[in-house]
Every structure is written in C-alpha cells, then in structure tokens.
Description:
The protein is built from six helices and six strands; from the N terminus they run ααβββααβαββα.
Amino acid sequence: LCDCPYTSLISKPTTLSAVDSAWVEELRAWLIEDGVRTRSTSAIWQRFCDRLLEKDVPIARATTQIRTMHSVTAGVQRLGTPGHMVRQRNWVYTNDQSAYQRSPVRTVHETKQWLRSKLTPKTAADFDLFEELLAEGMTDYVCIPVEFTNGTLNIISYATKQADGFTDRDIVIMAALLPALRTVLELMTYHRMIED
C-alpha cells in the first residue's frame, strides 16, 4: 500500500511522448469547453472515461465522489465501467460511519495524498472495497484527492484489470489531466447546487 504523492507511485521518471502530450492537451481543452456547456456530470464522466480507453489507458472502473453543500445529500458518487452507462448514487448524512472508516477514501481524506495499491489476496484485507475489486478481477487501484477552491476534499479513483496493473504512463496521464478535471467537476458541482 502506498499513500505517497503520485511521483512515488511510478517506477521511474516518465515523460509523455509527443503524441500522448498532444492528445492530453486536446482532452484538457475538451474538458474545459464541454464542462462549461454541459450540465450533466455523468455525461462528461462517461465520455472522459471512454476517451481514456480509446488511448489505451486501461480503466475498468472509474469513480468520482463529490461532497455537496446540501441539507439532505452529503455527496454524490458516479461510477463508470466500460460498456455501461455511468451509475449515480447519492449518499445522505448518517451517524453510521463504519463503511467510511473501512474505506481507502478515509485514508485519502486524512492524508490528502494519492493512494495506490496492487490488488492481491494480501492487500484485499486492507479495505473492504479491495475485496470487492479483487473479486471483480481488478489488479490495481488508484485513489486521488481533489480539493476544490472552497476547501472540500473530493475523490477520483481508477481501477484496472490489466495483469500488471497501471503503467507509469497511465499514472502520469492521470496526473496531467487532474487540474482540468478538478476545474470541470467543481464548476458542475456549483451548477448543481444552484439548480437544487
């Protein structure tokens, strides 16, 4: 288990190729442009995940977990998997924190650091979620803190079924896209708050 900054999650310093750098820049621009025009976070997340897959970033599961400033809904999770529509789940305020206490999200909230774990029978004991992911055939998991300008700490996570897990290239791409993704998610969260 590693909860260090993302540069410690890769085996060696990695620079993206010119081709990768160009499409990452294109995807950043698309995120910002469509994030301004589109009011559906689920639609943006679906297309974003599809575009990662098109460029051989082997995500088999991708989630956003966004805290809300709402009297009833504490937050919103969106789960994307290849070939399926994004599933949205709202969670409400509750005194029962047991699931949260046993989740990697708690660790990321507390450390404000990237967390990565190869999923094996041994590491599956670390968190309840890891047991579920391992049973689904996942091999590698990355959980990323996303802090909005108002100070709320949110989460993006990715998992893969690739035998060797994510490559250094995959991790660097995740990091390169994070600033634009953060901007879009925050903007769309504010749109939702205004509409609610």
